[in-house]
Input
Amino acid sequence: MIEVRRPKDLARLRRLALNAQGLLQNQPFGRGLAGARRAINHVGYVQIDTISVVERAHHHVLHSRVPGFEPAMIDRLLRSRDIFEYWSHAAAFLPIDDYRFSLPYKHAIKSGQTHWYRNPDRKLMRELLTRIRSDGPLRSRDVEAGARKQAGWWDWKPAKKALEQLYMEGDLMVSDRDGFQKTYDLTERVLPAHLNTAMPSVEEFATHLIDQQLRCHGMVSLKGLTYLRRNTELRKAVKVQVNDRLAQGTLEQVQVNGGDVFLLEAGAFEQSLPRLKQRLKILSPFDNSVIQRDRLKALFQYDYQIECYVPEAKRQYGYFCLPLLYRDEFIGRMDCKAHRRIRQLEIKSLHLEPRSSDTDAVISALVDAVAQFLLFQNCDSVTLTQIYPQPLTQTVRSALEAWG
Output
């Protein structure tokens, strides 16, 4: 067991984790469409989210890693069958080559496990399958007319619920998208012919998860390997394989400050890593690097919670605070809203952590990051309302004004 207590060793762990996530180098996956394809293949999934106060999470995650990424590229990758849409720990875009590892959950749903609905309308599902088989793909808007959309997912009309159940069970796939309007088609008409569609054994699934998580995170806790997966047999199989790899010496353990224990490939702690740049990244709350909050706190001492699900009166930082990563530290958060009609980005509040060391360098990097973020949001100007700690208010405002 490697004991990590010294600041320089913890810094090495952070760099290992951030490098595995593609957040240290300028273009670790390349640029544009090809870079986006490689990025999704590497990180394993990109979470889909509907919140649109700034550019949506699935676009934001790729923007943070792939220079030249444009939101329309996600739809192109879906249409070209490089990725597919399904449930990971949440709704996500996933590499098409990982399709077979979606089958166990689809089988569980078809066998009676509840995802959204307890009593699916089987008769209506059969009718919809027949219609799609004979008439071709069906757009979600074709069955949404008259739905009381203001009430949320649970108020969808029966046909929409039936379509989504067929999708969750694996009979249908999303073949195309227009924003959040899905087009459904028969799975056999969507999948590439060369794809392996064999149901994986629980041991194969465990191997896939361990390899994937080590690849995209650099290190992972035993709990993190099956993050939000409630399959008891899978968890047992993962634990058995981890113990086997530890015994064989292909995995080793590292303990951070006498507490959390992480697994990493043998020798990874000593590997050569990219140098840190004086660069700040504005990340999505659903970014793969921050989504496991316990891991984030253990490695980076960064206590983060997305507050859009918290009652307004109880919010500490704002509705949709974006984590700020500078070099190998999370140094703050920024609550933003893109006013698209007037092409203005409003920074409602900017919170910088008290431990931020070189304040001038951080502010300079922040201004550069905001300039790039403006372009991503299709905005031309930025406003800043509140800054914490307040003594930095004039410094930050002046820096933004000098840039603008």
User: Anything to note?
Assistant: Residues 359-376 form the longest helix (18 residues). The domain at 305-403 is CATH 3.40.630 (Aminopeptidase). The mean pLDDT is 91.
